[in-house]
Design brief:
The complex is a heterodimer.
Chain A: H1 7-34, H2 45-54, H3 56-90, H4 92-107, H5 110-121, H6 125-148, H7 153-161, H8 166-202, H9 209-218, H10 222-250
Helix pairs in contact in A: 2-10, 3-4, 3-6, 3-8, 3-9, 3-10, 4-6, 5-6, 6-8, 8-9, 8-10, 9-10
Chain B: E1 20-33, E2 36-49, E3 53-57, H1 64-72, E4 79-84, E5 87-88, H2 89-95, E6 99-101, H3 113-125, H4 129-142, H5 158-170, E7 176-180, H6 188-204, E8 208-213, H7 216-222, E9 225-230, E10 235-241, H8 256-270
Parallel strand pairs in B: 3-8, 3-9, 6-7, 7-8
Antiparallel strand pairs in B: 1-2, 1-4, 4-5, 9-10
Helix pairs in contact in B: 3-4, 3-5, 4-5, 7-8
Classes of the chains: A mainly alpha, B alpha/beta.
Domain ABC transporter (chain B): 22-256
GO molecular function (chain B): ATP binding; ATP hydrolysis activity
Keywords (chain B): ATP-binding, Nucleotide-binding, Transport
Chain lengths: 260, 271
Protein backbone atom coordinates (compact mmCIF):
# COMPACT_ATOMS: atom_id res chain seq x y z
CA UNK A 1 0.00 0.00 0.00
CA UNK A 2 1.21 3.48 -0.86
CA UNK A 3 0.39 4.96 2.52
CA UNK A 4 2.12 2.27 4.52
CA UNK A 5 5.62 2.90 3.11
CA UNK A 6 8.23 4.40 5.46
CA UNK A 7 9.65 7.87 4.58
CA UNK A 8 12.95 6.22 3.72
CA UNK A 9 11.35 3.75 1.33
CA UNK A 10 9.38 6.55 -0.26
CA UNK A 11 12.51 8.61 -0.75
CA UNK A 12 14.15 5.59 -2.36
CA UNK A 13 11.10 5.23 -4.61
CA UNK A 14 11.44 8.85 -5.73
CA UNK A 15 15.16 8.46 -6.51
CA UNK A 16 14.82 7.53 -10.23
CA UNK A 17 12.53 10.51 -10.88
CA UNK A 18 14.88 12.90 -9.05
CA UNK A 19 17.92 11.51 -10.86
CA UNK A 20 16.29 11.99 -14.26
CA UNK A 21 15.14 15.49 -13.31
CA UNK A 22 18.67 16.47 -12.28
CA UNK A 23 20.14 14.92 -15.43
CA UNK A 24 17.74 16.89 -17.66
CA UNK A 25 18.47 20.13 -15.79
CA UNK A 26 22.24 19.58 -16.11
CA UNK A 27 21.98 18.71 -19.83
CA UNK A 28 19.84 21.82 -20.36
CA UNK A 29 22.25 24.07 -18.46
CA UNK A 30 25.39 22.86 -20.22
CA UNK A 31 23.72 22.37 -23.62
CA UNK A 32 22.55 25.98 -23.68
CA UNK A 33 26.04 27.22 -22.71
CA UNK A 34 27.87 24.86 -25.04
CA UNK A 35 25.82 25.78 -28.14
CA UNK A 36 25.49 29.45 -27.19
CA UNK A 37 21.68 29.44 -27.38
CA UNK A 38 20.44 33.03 -26.92
CA UNK A 39 18.58 33.62 -23.66
CA UNK A 40 15.46 34.97 -25.41
CA UNK A 41 15.05 31.49 -27.00
CA UNK A 42 16.02 29.21 -24.15
CA UNK A 43 17.53 30.56 -20.93
CA UNK A 44 19.61 28.18 -18.80
CA UNK A 45 17.98 26.90 -15.57
CA UNK A 46 20.34 28.95 -13.41
CA UNK A 47 19.19 32.14 -15.16
CA UNK A 48 15.55 31.16 -14.55
CA UNK A 49 16.29 30.50 -10.87
CA UNK A 50 18.08 33.85 -10.64
CA UNK A 51 15.07 35.57 -12.24
CA UNK A 52 12.74 33.81 -9.79
CA UNK A 53 14.85 34.94 -6.86
CA UNK A 54 15.27 38.49 -8.19
CA UNK A 55 11.62 39.00 -9.08
CA UNK A 56 10.23 36.96 -6.22
CA UNK A 57 8.15 39.81 -4.87
CA UNK A 58 6.55 40.44 -8.32
CA UNK A 59 6.00 36.72 -8.93
CA UNK A 60 4.46 36.07 -5.53
CA UNK A 61 2.14 39.07 -5.73
CA UNK A 62 0.81 37.92 -9.10
CA UNK A 63 0.71 34.28 -8.03
CA UNK A 64 -1.40 35.33 -5.04
CA UNK A 65 -3.97 36.95 -7.33
CA UNK A 66 -4.12 33.89 -9.59
CA UNK A 67 -4.30 31.34 -6.79
CA UNK A 68 -6.97 33.30 -4.94
CA UNK A 69 -9.13 33.18 -8.09
CA UNK A 70 -8.30 29.50 -8.69
CA UNK A 71 -9.10 28.40 -5.14
CA UNK A 72 -12.31 30.44 -4.95
CA UNK A 73 -13.39 29.13 -8.37
CA UNK A 74 -12.51 25.57 -7.36
CA UNK A 75 -14.55 25.82 -4.14
CA UNK A 76 -17.53 27.46 -5.86
CA UNK A 77 -17.49 25.11 -8.87
CA UNK A 78 -17.11 21.99 -6.69
CA UNK A 79 -19.71 23.17 -4.18
CA UNK A 80 -22.23 24.04 -6.84
CA UNK A 81 -21.65 20.72 -8.64
CA UNK A 82 -22.22 18.74 -5.42
CA UNK A 83 -25.39 20.72 -4.63
CA UNK A 84 -26.75 20.15 -8.12
CA UNK A 85 -25.91 16.44 -7.89
CA UNK A 86 -27.99 16.27 -4.68
CA UNK A 87 -30.87 18.04 -6.46
CA UNK A 88 -30.59 15.50 -9.30
CA UNK A 89 -30.67 12.65 -6.77
CA UNK A 90 -34.08 13.66 -5.46
CA UNK A 91 -35.61 15.07 -8.63
CA UNK A 92 -35.48 13.14 -11.87
CA UNK A 93 -37.31 16.04 -13.53
CA UNK A 94 -34.56 18.48 -12.52
CA UNK A 95 -31.94 16.05 -13.78
CA UNK A 96 -33.67 15.66 -17.15
CA UNK A 97 -34.12 19.41 -17.49
CA UNK A 98 -30.68 20.54 -16.34
CA UNK A 99 -28.26 17.84 -17.42
CA UNK A 100 -28.25 18.96 -21.11
CA UNK A 101 -27.31 22.44 -19.90
CA UNK A 102 -24.45 21.02 -17.87
CA UNK A 103 -23.19 19.14 -20.93
CA UNK A 104 -23.52 22.29 -23.05
CA UNK A 105 -21.43 24.24 -20.55
CA UNK A 106 -18.80 21.51 -20.75
CA UNK A 107 -18.60 21.71 -24.55
CA UNK A 108 -17.95 25.47 -24.59
CA UNK A 109 -14.19 26.13 -24.81
CA UNK A 110 -13.30 28.27 -21.80
CA UNK A 111 -10.85 30.27 -23.87
CA UNK A 112 -13.81 31.39 -26.00
CA UNK A 113 -15.98 32.57 -23.12
CA UNK A 114 -13.15 34.20 -21.21
CA UNK A 115 -13.37 37.50 -23.19
CA UNK A 116 -17.14 37.47 -22.79
CA UNK A 117 -16.87 37.09 -19.04
CA UNK A 118 -14.31 39.90 -18.94
CA UNK A 119 -16.81 42.16 -20.77
CA UNK A 120 -19.51 41.21 -18.30
CA UNK A 121 -17.58 41.06 -15.07
CA UNK A 122 -14.71 43.47 -15.58
CA UNK A 123 -10.94 43.16 -15.14
CA UNK A 124 -10.92 42.13 -11.53
CA UNK A 125 -11.25 38.86 -9.64
CA UNK A 126 -14.77 37.94 -10.77
CA UNK A 127 -14.20 36.66 -14.36
CA UNK A 128 -11.22 34.54 -13.22
CA UNK A 129 -13.26 32.94 -10.44
CA UNK A 130 -16.06 32.29 -12.92
CA UNK A 131 -13.80 30.53 -15.43
CA UNK A 132 -12.13 28.44 -12.74
CA UNK A 133 -15.55 27.48 -11.36
CA UNK A 134 -16.89 26.51 -14.80
CA UNK A 135 -13.86 24.30 -15.42
CA UNK A 136 -14.28 22.50 -12.07
CA UNK A 137 -18.02 22.16 -12.34
CA UNK A 138 -18.59 19.38 -14.84
CA UNK A 139 -16.19 16.61 -13.76
CA UNK A 140 -17.34 17.00 -10.16
CA UNK A 141 -21.02 17.00 -11.13
CA UNK A 142 -20.68 13.74 -13.08
CA UNK A 143 -18.72 12.05 -10.30
CA UNK A 144 -20.98 13.30 -7.50
CA UNK A 145 -24.10 12.14 -9.36
CA UNK A 146 -22.52 8.71 -9.70
CA UNK A 147 -21.15 8.57 -6.16
CA UNK A 148 -24.44 9.48 -4.50
CA UNK A 149 -26.01 6.48 -6.23
CA UNK A 150 -23.37 3.86 -5.49
CA UNK A 151 -24.90 2.86 -2.16
CA UNK A 152 -25.47 -0.90 -2.03
CA UNK A 153 -29.11 -1.82 -2.86
CA UNK A 154 -29.44 -4.00 0.25
CA UNK A 155 -28.04 -1.24 2.45
CA UNK A 156 -30.75 1.05 1.08
CA UNK A 157 -33.38 -1.63 1.74
CA UNK A 158 -32.12 -1.84 5.29
CA UNK A 159 -32.56 1.92 5.72
CA UNK A 160 -36.08 1.47 4.37
CA UNK A 161 -36.81 -1.30 6.90
CA UNK A 162 -35.62 1.09 9.61
CA UNK A 163 -38.03 3.71 8.32
CA UNK A 164 -35.09 6.10 7.86
CA UNK A 165 -35.88 9.51 6.43
CA UNK A 166 -34.19 10.78 3.27
CA UNK A 167 -32.02 13.00 5.40
CA UNK A 168 -30.95 10.08 7.60
CA UNK A 169 -30.20 7.90 4.57
CA UNK A 170 -28.20 10.76 3.13
CA UNK A 171 -26.25 11.40 6.29
CA UNK A 172 -25.45 7.76 7.05
CA UNK A 173 -25.00 6.41 3.55
CA UNK A 174 -25.06 8.58 0.45
CA UNK A 175 -22.75 11.28 1.78
CA UNK A 176 -19.94 8.80 2.43
CA UNK A 177 -20.60 6.88 -0.77
CA UNK A 178 -20.18 10.10 -2.76
CA UNK A 179 -17.03 11.37 -1.00
CA UNK A 180 -14.49 9.13 -2.81
CA UNK A 181 -15.98 10.14 -6.16
CA UNK A 182 -16.05 13.84 -5.31
CA UNK A 183 -12.41 13.75 -4.22
CA UNK A 184 -11.34 11.87 -7.33
CA UNK A 185 -12.85 14.72 -9.37
CA UNK A 186 -11.54 17.44 -7.05
CA UNK A 187 -7.96 16.25 -7.46
CA UNK A 188 -8.22 16.69 -11.22
CA UNK A 189 -10.16 19.93 -11.15
CA UNK A 190 -7.92 21.63 -8.58
CA UNK A 191 -5.15 21.88 -11.17
CA UNK A 192 -7.66 22.69 -13.92
CA UNK A 193 -8.84 25.63 -11.80
CA UNK A 194 -5.37 27.22 -11.87
CA UNK A 195 -5.23 26.81 -15.65
CA UNK A 196 -8.69 28.36 -15.88
CA UNK A 197 -7.66 31.38 -13.84
CA UNK A 198 -4.52 31.92 -15.98
CA UNK A 199 -6.54 31.63 -19.20
CA UNK A 200 -8.96 34.25 -17.85
CA UNK A 201 -6.03 36.54 -17.13
CA UNK A 202 -4.88 36.30 -20.74
CA UNK A 203 -7.97 38.11 -21.96
CA UNK A 204 -7.70 41.00 -19.60
CA UNK A 205 -6.75 41.35 -15.98
CA UNK A 206 -4.78 43.76 -13.85
CA UNK A 207 -2.72 41.20 -11.98
CA UNK A 208 -1.93 37.51 -12.04
CA UNK A 209 0.47 34.98 -13.49
CA UNK A 210 -1.50 35.13 -16.77
CA UNK A 211 -0.86 38.88 -17.07
CA UNK A 212 2.85 38.34 -16.37
CA UNK A 213 2.97 35.67 -19.07
CA UNK A 214 1.25 37.89 -21.65
CA UNK A 215 3.55 40.87 -20.88
CA UNK A 216 6.69 38.71 -20.93
CA UNK A 217 5.51 37.21 -24.22
CA UNK A 218 5.24 40.65 -25.84
CA UNK A 219 8.71 41.50 -24.57
CA UNK A 220 10.12 38.15 -25.75
CA UNK A 221 11.34 37.66 -22.17
CA UNK A 222 11.71 33.87 -22.15
CA UNK A 223 13.42 33.92 -18.76
CA UNK A 224 10.42 35.64 -17.15
CA UNK A 225 8.05 33.26 -19.02
CA UNK A 226 9.83 30.24 -17.57
CA UNK A 227 9.90 31.82 -14.12
CA UNK A 228 6.14 32.46 -14.27
CA UNK A 229 5.38 28.96 -15.59
CA UNK A 230 7.49 27.25 -12.92
CA UNK A 231 6.02 29.42 -10.15
CA UNK A 232 2.44 28.59 -11.12
CA UNK A 233 3.29 24.89 -11.55
CA UNK A 234 4.74 24.74 -8.05
CA UNK A 235 1.64 26.44 -6.66
CA UNK A 236 -0.61 24.03 -8.55
CA UNK A 237 1.27 21.06 -7.13
CA UNK A 238 0.85 22.57 -3.66
CA UNK A 239 -2.90 22.95 -4.22
CA UNK A 240 -3.19 19.37 -5.47
CA UNK A 241 -1.30 18.23 -2.39
CA UNK A 242 -3.69 20.18 -0.14
CA UNK A 243 -6.68 18.49 -1.78
CA UNK A 244 -4.98 15.11 -1.31
CA UNK A 245 -4.47 15.91 2.39
CA UNK A 246 -8.16 16.82 2.71
CA UNK A 247 -9.02 13.56 0.95
CA UNK A 248 -6.93 11.56 3.39
CA UNK A 249 -8.67 13.25 6.30
CA UNK A 250 -12.17 12.70 4.90
CA UNK A 251 -11.75 9.17 3.54
CA UNK A 252 -10.83 7.65 6.86
CA UNK A 253 -12.20 4.14 6.30
CA UNK A 254 -10.19 1.34 4.60
CA UNK A 255 -10.45 0.89 0.85
CA UNK A 256 -12.31 4.16 0.53
CA UNK A 257 -10.18 5.69 -2.18
CA UNK A 258 -11.11 5.09 -5.78
CA UNK A 259 -9.00 5.94 -8.78
CA UNK A 260 -11.12 7.32 -11.57
CA UNK B 1 -51.05 -28.30 4.26
CA UNK B 2 -50.89 -24.54 4.82
CA UNK B 3 -51.80 -23.13 8.17
CA UNK B 4 -55.22 -21.54 8.22
CA UNK B 5 -55.11 -18.04 9.59
CA UNK B 6 -58.05 -18.48 11.98
CA UNK B 7 -56.86 -21.70 13.61
CA UNK B 8 -54.23 -21.03 16.18
CA UNK B 9 -54.13 -24.66 17.27
CA UNK B 10 -53.49 -25.97 13.78
CA UNK B 11 -50.65 -28.48 14.06
CA UNK B 12 -48.99 -26.88 11.04
CA UNK B 13 -48.26 -23.83 13.17
CA UNK B 14 -45.56 -25.65 15.04
CA UNK B 15 -45.11 -27.57 18.23
CA UNK B 16 -45.56 -24.55 20.42
CA UNK B 17 -49.03 -23.96 18.93
CA UNK B 18 -48.50 -20.30 19.67
CA UNK B 19 -50.80 -17.82 17.95
CA UNK B 20 -49.50 -16.77 14.53
CA UNK B 21 -47.47 -13.59 14.63
CA UNK B 22 -47.56 -13.29 10.84
CA UNK B 23 -50.59 -14.22 8.76
CA UNK B 24 -50.16 -14.25 5.02
CA UNK B 25 -53.49 -14.39 3.25
CA UNK B 26 -53.74 -14.90 -0.50
CA UNK B 27 -50.66 -12.80 -1.27
CA UNK B 28 -49.72 -12.40 -4.92
CA UNK B 29 -46.98 -10.22 -6.34
CA UNK B 30 -46.78 -9.46 -10.03
CA UNK B 31 -43.87 -7.59 -11.60
CA UNK B 32 -43.87 -5.98 -15.00
CA UNK B 33 -40.84 -6.99 -16.98
CA UNK B 34 -39.73 -6.45 -20.56
CA UNK B 35 -41.10 -9.91 -21.39
CA UNK B 36 -44.50 -9.10 -19.91
CA UNK B 37 -45.88 -9.57 -16.41
CA UNK B 38 -44.13 -12.06 -14.11
CA UNK B 39 -45.96 -13.77 -11.26
CA UNK B 40 -43.29 -13.62 -8.58
CA UNK B 41 -45.73 -14.88 -5.95
CA UNK B 42 -49.09 -16.51 -6.52
CA UNK B 43 -51.71 -16.92 -3.79
CA UNK B 44 -49.47 -17.50 -0.78
CA UNK B 45 -51.24 -18.55 2.44
CA UNK B 46 -49.09 -19.05 5.51
CA UNK B 47 -49.20 -18.55 9.24
CA UNK B 48 -45.97 -18.06 11.17
CA UNK B 49 -46.14 -18.95 14.85
CA UNK B 50 -44.66 -16.57 17.40
CA UNK B 51 -41.23 -17.68 18.50
CA UNK B 52 -40.87 -20.20 15.69
CA UNK B 53 -37.96 -20.70 13.34
CA UNK B 54 -39.21 -21.09 9.77
CA UNK B 55 -37.06 -21.65 6.72
CA UNK B 56 -38.18 -20.88 3.20
CA UNK B 57 -36.39 -22.93 0.57
CA UNK B 58 -36.61 -23.30 -3.17
CA UNK B 59 -34.71 -22.74 -6.38
CA UNK B 60 -33.60 -19.28 -7.46
CA UNK B 61 -36.50 -17.33 -8.86
CA UNK B 62 -39.20 -19.05 -6.81
CA UNK B 63 -39.97 -15.86 -4.93
CA UNK B 64 -38.34 -16.62 -1.55
CA UNK B 65 -36.79 -13.19 -1.20
CA UNK B 66 -39.87 -11.54 -2.67
CA UNK B 67 -41.96 -13.20 0.04
CA UNK B 68 -39.72 -11.77 2.78
CA UNK B 69 -39.97 -8.35 1.18
CA UNK B 70 -43.75 -8.60 0.79
CA UNK B 71 -44.04 -9.40 4.51
CA UNK B 72 -41.84 -6.48 5.56
CA UNK B 73 -43.56 -4.09 3.18
CA UNK B 74 -40.44 -3.47 1.07
CA UNK B 75 -42.62 -4.77 -1.78
CA UNK B 76 -46.35 -4.10 -1.87
CA UNK B 77 -48.39 -7.23 -2.69
CA UNK B 78 -50.47 -6.96 -5.87
CA UNK B 79 -53.29 -8.68 -4.03
CA UNK B 80 -53.87 -10.36 -0.67
CA UNK B 81 -52.87 -9.15 2.76
CA UNK B 82 -50.15 -9.59 5.34
CA UNK B 83 -51.09 -9.20 8.98
CA UNK B 84 -48.38 -8.89 11.59
CA UNK B 85 -49.69 -9.20 15.14
CA UNK B 86 -53.12 -8.30 13.86
CA UNK B 87 -51.92 -5.14 12.11
CA UNK B 88 -51.18 -4.53 8.46
CA UNK B 89 -47.43 -4.80 7.92
CA UNK B 90 -47.30 -1.06 7.14
CA UNK B 91 -48.90 -0.25 10.51
CA UNK B 92 -46.67 -2.75 12.27
CA UNK B 93 -43.68 -1.19 10.54
CA UNK B 94 -44.68 2.24 11.89
CA UNK B 95 -44.53 1.14 15.51
CA UNK B 96 -42.22 -1.86 15.57
CA UNK B 97 -39.53 -2.79 13.08
CA UNK B 98 -38.54 -6.00 11.43
CA UNK B 99 -35.00 -7.19 11.90
CA UNK B 100 -33.35 -7.87 8.56
CA UNK B 101 -30.11 -9.68 7.72
CA UNK B 102 -29.15 -9.61 4.06
CA UNK B 103 -27.05 -11.95 1.98
CA UNK B 104 -24.47 -9.47 0.82
CA UNK B 105 -22.35 -6.89 2.51
CA UNK B 106 -25.01 -4.42 3.44
CA UNK B 107 -22.83 -3.01 6.20
CA UNK B 108 -21.57 0.51 5.67
CA UNK B 109 -17.83 0.35 4.95
CA UNK B 110 -17.37 3.82 6.49
CA UNK B 111 -18.71 2.74 9.85
CA UNK B 112 -16.89 0.51 12.31
CA UNK B 113 -18.52 -2.68 13.56
CA UNK B 114 -19.85 -0.73 16.57
CA UNK B 115 -20.85 2.17 14.32
CA UNK B 116 -22.87 -0.13 12.08
CA UNK B 117 -24.65 -1.64 15.07
CA UNK B 118 -25.30 1.80 16.57
CA UNK B 119 -26.77 3.30 13.42
CA UNK B 120 -30.28 1.75 13.68
CA UNK B 121 -30.53 2.75 17.34
CA UNK B 122 -29.94 6.34 16.31
CA UNK B 123 -32.28 6.20 13.31
CA UNK B 124 -35.14 4.28 14.94
CA UNK B 125 -35.01 5.33 18.57
CA UNK B 126 -32.83 8.44 18.60
CA UNK B 127 -30.87 6.85 21.42
CA UNK B 128 -28.07 9.03 22.88
CA UNK B 129 -24.52 8.25 21.88
CA UNK B 130 -23.20 6.72 25.09
CA UNK B 131 -26.19 4.40 25.48
CA UNK B 132 -25.86 3.32 21.85
CA UNK B 133 -22.22 2.52 22.23
CA UNK B 134 -22.82 0.49 25.40
CA UNK B 135 -25.57 -1.52 23.74
CA UNK B 136 -23.51 -2.04 20.58
CA UNK B 137 -20.72 -3.47 22.71
CA UNK B 138 -23.19 -5.84 24.40
CA UNK B 139 -24.57 -6.99 21.05
CA UNK B 140 -21.12 -7.52 19.58
CA UNK B 141 -20.31 -9.61 22.64
CA UNK B 142 -23.49 -11.60 21.97
CA UNK B 143 -22.25 -12.42 18.45
CA UNK B 144 -18.76 -13.09 19.87
CA UNK B 145 -17.04 -10.11 18.34
CA UNK B 146 -15.78 -8.44 21.50
CA UNK B 147 -12.53 -6.69 20.73
CA UNK B 148 -13.58 -5.95 17.15
CA UNK B 149 -15.80 -2.94 17.95
CA UNK B 150 -13.55 -0.48 16.18
CA UNK B 151 -12.74 -2.59 13.15
CA UNK B 152 -14.13 -1.55 9.80
CA UNK B 153 -16.01 -4.16 7.72
CA UNK B 154 -13.08 -4.36 5.28
CA UNK B 155 -10.92 -5.53 8.20
CA UNK B 156 -13.27 -8.41 9.10
CA UNK B 157 -13.80 -11.82 7.51
CA UNK B 158 -17.05 -12.70 5.71
CA UNK B 159 -18.35 -14.63 8.71
CA UNK B 160 -17.49 -11.79 11.09
CA UNK B 161 -19.26 -9.31 8.84
CA UNK B 162 -22.42 -11.42 8.96
CA UNK B 163 -22.12 -11.51 12.75
CA UNK B 164 -22.07 -7.72 12.70
CA UNK B 165 -25.14 -7.80 10.41
CA UNK B 166 -26.96 -9.98 12.95
CA UNK B 167 -25.99 -7.68 15.83
CA UNK B 168 -27.15 -4.72 13.77
CA UNK B 169 -30.50 -6.38 13.04
CA UNK B 170 -31.00 -7.13 16.74
CA UNK B 171 -29.97 -3.65 17.88
CA UNK B 172 -33.51 -2.25 17.90
CA UNK B 173 -35.00 -5.33 19.60
CA UNK B 174 -37.17 -6.64 16.76
CA UNK B 175 -39.70 -9.37 17.51
CA UNK B 176 -39.34 -10.78 14.01
CA UNK B 177 -36.03 -11.40 12.31
CA UNK B 178 -35.88 -11.83 8.53
CA UNK B 179 -32.76 -13.52 7.20
CA UNK B 180 -32.33 -13.51 3.43
CA UNK B 181 -29.72 -16.17 2.54
CA UNK B 182 -27.46 -14.68 5.19
CA UNK B 183 -24.74 -17.31 4.91
CA UNK B 184 -24.89 -17.87 1.15
CA UNK B 185 -21.48 -16.31 0.59
CA UNK B 186 -19.70 -18.13 3.44
CA UNK B 187 -17.60 -21.28 3.24
CA UNK B 188 -19.10 -24.50 4.63
CA UNK B 189 -17.22 -24.45 7.95
CA UNK B 190 -17.95 -20.83 8.76
CA UNK B 191 -21.52 -21.46 7.75
CA UNK B 192 -21.92 -24.35 10.22
CA UNK B 193 -20.42 -22.22 12.93
CA UNK B 194 -22.94 -19.52 12.13
CA UNK B 195 -25.82 -22.01 12.31
CA UNK B 196 -25.03 -22.81 15.91
CA UNK B 197 -24.64 -19.11 16.64
CA UNK B 198 -28.04 -18.31 15.17
CA UNK B 199 -29.73 -21.06 17.16
CA UNK B 200 -28.04 -19.89 20.35
CA UNK B 201 -29.14 -16.29 19.76
CA UNK B 202 -32.67 -17.33 18.77
CA UNK B 203 -32.98 -19.37 21.96
CA UNK B 204 -31.75 -16.51 24.11
CA UNK B 205 -34.61 -14.16 23.20
CA UNK B 206 -38.28 -14.18 22.16
CA UNK B 207 -37.57 -14.02 18.46
CA UNK B 208 -39.53 -15.27 15.46
CA UNK B 209 -37.15 -16.06 12.61
CA UNK B 210 -37.90 -16.34 8.91
CA UNK B 211 -34.87 -17.74 7.16
CA UNK B 212 -34.54 -17.85 3.37
CA UNK B 213 -32.02 -20.34 2.01
CA UNK B 214 -31.40 -22.64 -0.89
CA UNK B 215 -29.56 -25.13 1.25
CA UNK B 216 -31.62 -28.13 2.38
CA UNK B 217 -29.21 -29.08 5.14
CA UNK B 218 -29.22 -25.53 6.46
CA UNK B 219 -33.03 -25.48 6.55
CA UNK B 220 -33.24 -28.90 8.26
CA UNK B 221 -30.60 -28.09 10.83
CA UNK B 222 -32.06 -24.76 11.87
CA UNK B 223 -35.81 -24.79 11.63
CA UNK B 224 -39.08 -25.96 13.16
CA UNK B 225 -40.80 -25.75 9.83
CA UNK B 226 -39.69 -25.65 6.25
CA UNK B 227 -41.74 -23.90 3.59
CA UNK B 228 -40.87 -25.39 0.21
CA UNK B 229 -41.51 -23.05 -2.69
CA UNK B 230 -41.70 -23.67 -6.43
CA UNK B 231 -41.11 -21.23 -9.27
CA UNK B 232 -43.23 -19.87 -12.17
CA UNK B 233 -45.42 -18.78 -10.59
CA UNK B 234 -43.79 -18.50 -7.15
CA UNK B 235 -45.94 -20.63 -4.87
CA UNK B 236 -45.85 -22.75 -1.72
CA UNK B 237 -45.42 -26.37 -2.65
CA UNK B 238 -45.34 -27.93 0.79
CA UNK B 239 -44.85 -27.11 4.44
CA UNK B 240 -42.74 -29.63 6.34
CA UNK B 241 -42.46 -30.02 10.09
CA UNK B 242 -38.90 -30.81 11.10
CA UNK B 243 -38.81 -33.92 13.30
CA UNK B 244 -35.40 -33.54 14.84
CA UNK B 245 -35.24 -30.84 17.45
CA UNK B 246 -32.24 -28.52 17.22
CA UNK B 247 -29.59 -30.49 19.07
CA UNK B 248 -26.66 -28.10 18.51
CA UNK B 249 -24.79 -31.26 17.72
CA UNK B 250 -23.15 -31.77 14.36
CA UNK B 251 -23.82 -35.52 14.56
CA UNK B 252 -27.52 -34.66 14.06
CA UNK B 253 -26.60 -34.24 10.43
CA UNK B 254 -26.19 -37.99 10.15
CA UNK B 255 -29.20 -39.12 12.22
CA UNK B 256 -31.80 -41.33 10.56
CA UNK B 257 -34.65 -38.83 10.88
CA UNK B 258 -32.50 -36.06 9.45
CA UNK B 259 -31.45 -38.13 6.47
CA UNK B 260 -35.00 -39.33 5.82
CA UNK B 261 -36.36 -35.78 5.83
CA UNK B 262 -33.51 -34.71 3.63
CA UNK B 263 -34.51 -37.34 1.07
CA UNK B 264 -38.12 -36.18 1.32
CA UNK B 265 -37.10 -32.60 0.68
CA UNK B 266 -34.90 -33.60 -2.25
CA UNK B 267 -37.83 -35.40 -3.81
CA UNK B 268 -40.10 -32.39 -3.25
CA UNK B 269 -37.66 -30.00 -4.88
CA UNK B 270 -37.04 -32.27 -7.86
CA UNK B 271 -40.69 -33.03 -8.49
Amino acid sequence: MRDGASPLARAAGAAPALALFLAVALAWEFGVRLFDVPAFLLPPPTAILAEMAGSSELLLRNLGATMLAAVLGFLIGTGFAVLLAIVFLYSRAAERALFPWAITIKTIPVIAIAPLLTIWLGYGLAPKVAIAAIICFFPTLVNAVKGLRTVDAQALEFMQVLGASRAQTFRHARLYAALPYVFAAAKISSSMAVIGAIVAEFTGANTGIGTLIVTAGYQMDATMLFAAIITSSLATIALFYLVTLAEKACLFWPEARIDV
Amino acid sequence: MNAGSARPLDPALGKAAAPPVIEIDGVSVRFDSAQGPVDALSDINLGIAAGSFTSIIGRSGCGKSTLLRAITGLIRPTSGSVQVQGQSSADYQRTRRFGFVFQGDSLFPWKTAAGNVEMPMEVVQGMPRAARRKRAEELLRLVRLDGFEDHYPAQLSGGMRQRVSIARALSYEPEILMMDEPFGALDEFTRREMHDEVIRIWRSRPLTVLFVTHSLSEALYLSDRIVVMAPRPGRVKAVIEVETPRPLDPSARTSAAYLRQMTELEALLDA
